[in-house]
Amino acid sequence: MDSRLDKERFLKGECVLTDGGSCFHIRISVAAFPKTRERAISSVKVMFG
After folding, report:
1. How big is the CA angle at 5 (ends 34 and 48), to the nearest 5 degrees?
2. Which residue, of 6, 7, 17, 19, has the greatest Cβ tally within 10 A?
3. How far apart are CA 2 and CA 22, in angstroms?
4. How far is it, in rounded angstroms, from Cα 32 to Cα 10?
5. Against a cut of 0.70, is the pTM above it?
6. Predicted confidence (pLDDT) per residue in 2-49, tens digit
7. Which residues have CB under 8 Å from 21's CB, separation 6+?
């Protein structure tokens, strides 16, 4: 899963996804059981609030 976080807002403590501009590009791997997309998305939402 690739994502970009808005750099200015991230440095203020907010996690906001963006499509471009000034941003941090991140890639994460999620381990979820059972191995489904829905379960992985649920795990990420729990981690990032």
Report:
1. 40
2. 6
3. 16
4. 26
5. no
6. 678 899 999 999 888 888 889 998 888 888 889 899 998 888 888 876
7. 6
Residues 10, 24: contact at Cβ < 8 Å? yes
Domain ranges (residues) in the chain: 2-48
- Residue 30 — φ and ψ, nearest 5°? -120, 125
The sign one gets for the Cα dihedral 7, 17, 22, 31 is: positive
Token code pair at residue 29: 């791997």
